[in-house]
Each structure stands twice: as structure tokens, then as C-alpha cells.
Design goal:
Catalytic activity: L-glutaminyl-[peptide chain release factor] + S-adenosyl-L-methionine = N(5)-methyl-L-glutaminyl-[peptide chain release factor] + S-adenosyl-L-homocysteine + H(+)
Number of domains: 2
Strand order of the largest sheet: 5-4-3-6-7-9-8
Distance between the termini: 72 Å
Shape: elongated
CATH topology of the largest domain: Rossmann fold
Number of strands: 9
Family: Belongs to the protein N5-glutamine methyltransferase family. PrmC subfamily.
Bound molecules: S-adenosylmethionine
Structural class: alpha/beta
Helix content: 40-55%
GO biological process, one term: methylation
Keywords: Methyltransferase, S-adenosyl-L-methionine, Transferase
CATH superfamily of the largest domain: Vaccinia Virus protein VP39
Pfam family, one: PrmC_N
């Protein structure tokens, strides 16, 4: 059997199961099983290469097993064990939130806020796999980067990612609301992609609803903003005067989160930014002068 025939059959099965990008997922799973780069697999496919060992060999069997699990809507990144984020390959799986491309907007806004500051201090609250903290550490190697995560399982992935990337991140385990007591008033930029989904807004995608941990999703309170409010309050304590908070939120919270921050009196200015799809996504708040 050729790679092309195998991929066509797998794509059809994934499409029938409602997988959103069946052709790419079929290719990425096969590249994973074969241990080849995607571009290399695509070249081999065009050249009419056969599947090593045939359809019923070890590779063919391993591939079919992954395709079946993907038809059950297990996230692609759980099957490959890897998520790509801001140019990094991060280890992910059950128990940790899979980092999303839209969160890269927050990384870019943080990098802009850090421009012109030498050896800045940055903290990522609710770090999950460590994606945002590691992206900032790789793009600003002169910075002191801290990150905190409450879930033991997620923290384990973050620690593995700190080790595998070799990037310098001071990773801690515990509630963001009480974190980095030793850095209070010293931080230039705080980033956070906290849990923020309102209780009634159960995610449509099976991959999210059944595989991202609940602790990563629901923000608490009627508007889903209880935890984001608490995390922003901790950010206000950590930041120096003029320091910047960048917080991701749901597209329906583009007005409510900025309004909630303005109410506190902690912030001199608050504005909201859209993601690449044009949806409200990140609130940027500048710390008011500290007494
Ligand atoms: C939406 S996920 C984001 C993860 C990561 N920042 C990212 O963008 O991929 C939210 C994360 O916050 C963690 N979390 C929830 N409540 C927390 C708290 N009170 N303190 C620290 N982390 C918390 C969850 O376990 C989860 O890993």
C-alpha cells in the first residue's frame, strides 16, 4: 500500500468522524508514527513511496490505532505528545491544557511591552505546560522569567518542558493568587491565560470539553471572571508602577474584563486587543503608580 492510499483512507475516516482538519491530522499522525518531518512525508507521498512493512505491519497497525483514537476525538496533540507553540515543541498530554495558537498574540504583546527594558522580570500566572513563560524566555534570554501552576499534573509537564528546552524559567507549584511573594513590586510584565469560561458556556469541541482539564477551563462566578479577577489582583501586587498586565479572555469578555479591572483602581489604563481572527482576546492594563 502506498503512503498516498493510506492517507486518503485515513482522511476519509477522520472526516466522517467530524474531525475539523482531517487531511492534516492524517498526515501529522503518520509523520509521528514514521518519525519523519511533515515536509519529508509529503515528498515521499508525492513520489509514491510504500508504507514500510505494509498495511498489517507494526507501523501500519500503530497508525490505524492512532487514527481510531482520533476519530474518538482524542486531541491530536495528546496522540503525538507534542504541541507547537511560538516556535517551541512542548510536551503535552492528559492533565494539561494544550496551548492554542491564539495565545501567541499575548506573547507578542508581552514582547512589545518589554522593548527597551534591559534584564526585565516577567511572571506568567497559570502557566499550564509553561508555553507562554518558555516562549518569553526563548525570545528574551536576558530576562528573569517566573511561572506558577496550581495543578500537580500540569506542573509536571511544565517542569519537563523547562528541562527539554533548557530555558531558564523559575517554575513554582501553587495558587497564582499567592505566588512570587519574594518578587512583589519588582515585575515589569505579568502574563496570564487563566481559566475564564463562564459556567453555562460548555465548549462545543469534544477535544476541549472532554480532554482539557476542568481546572484549566472554568473561571468561576456567573461571568467566568472570578479567577481572572483574583489573578489580576495578584498581578497588581507583583507589578512595579507602569508595569503591564496582559490577560487572555473569552471573545465575549472583551468589555467585561477591562471593566472589572478599571473598577479596582489598580490600573492607570486598560485596553483590549483582538486576535488574528479579529476576536477580542487579550486585555492590556498598565499598573497605576504605587503609593
Ligand atoms: C487556560 S489554561 C492556560 C495554560 C497556559 N497558560 C496556556 O496558555 O497554555 C489555565 C491554567 O491555569 C491553571 N490554574 C487554574 N487555577 C489556578 C490558580 N488558582 N493558580 C495557578 N494556576 C491555576 C490550570 O491548571 C491551567 O493549567
Amino acid at each position: 500500500m502506498t503512503l498516498d492510499r493510506l492517507l486518503r483512507a485515513a482522511t476519509a475516516r477522520l472526516a466522517a468522524a467530524g474531525v475539523p482538519s482531517p487531511a492534516v491530522d492524517a498526515e501529522l499522525l503518520l509523520a509521528h508514527v514514521l518519525g519523519r518531518e511533515l515536509a519529508d512525508l509529503r515528498r515521499a507521498r508525492l513520489l509514491g513511496e510504500p508504507l514500510p512493512g505494509g498495511e498489517h505491519g507494526a507501523t501500519g497497525t500503530a497508525y490505524q490505532e492512532l487514527v481510531v483514537r482520533r476519530t474518538a476525538r482524542v486531541p491530536l496533540q495528546h496522540l503525538t505528545g507534542t504541541a507547537h507553540f511560538a516556535g517551541l515543541d512542548l510536551s503535552v498530554g492528559p492533565g494539561v491544557f494544550v496551548p492554542r495558537p491564539e495565545t501567541e498574540v499575548m506573547v507578542e504583546l508581552a514582547l512589545s511591552a518589554l522593548e527597551g527594558i534591559e534584564r526585565p522580570t516577567v511572571v506568567d500566572l497559570c502557566t499550564g505546560s509553561g508555553a507562554v513563560a518558555l516562549a518569553l524566555a526563548s525570545r528574551r534570554p536576558d530576562s528573569r522569567v517566573g511561572a506558577v501552576e496550581l495543578s500537580v499534573e500540569a506542573h509536571r509537564y511544565a517542569a519537563a518542558n523547562v528541562r527539554s528546552t533548557g530555558l531558564a524559567v523559575d517554575l513554582r507549584l501553587g495558587p497564582a493568587q499567592e505566588s512570587f511573594g519574594d518578587w512583589v513590586g519588582e515585575v515589569h510584565v505579568v502574563t496570564s491565560n487563566p481559566p475564564y469560561i463562564p459556567p453555562g458556556a460548555v465548549p462545543v469541541d469534544v477535544e476541549v470539553r472532554e480532554h482539557d482539564p476542568e481546572l484549566a477551563l472554568y473561571g468561576g462566578g456567573e461571568d467566568g471572571l472570578d479567577i481572572p479577577r483574583e489573578v489580576a489582583s495578584r498581578a497588581a501586587e507583583l507589578l512595579r508602577s507602569g508595569g503591564v498586565l496582559l490577560m487572555e479572555h473569552a471573545d465575549v469578555q472583551g468589555r467585561t474584563l477591562p471593566a472589572a479591572l478599571m473598577e479596582t483602581g489598580d490600573w492607570a489604563s486598560v485596553e483590549d486587543h483582538r486576535d488574528l481572527a479579529g476576536l477580542p482576546r487579550v486585555t492590556r492594563a498598565v499598573r497605576a503608580g504605587r503609593p
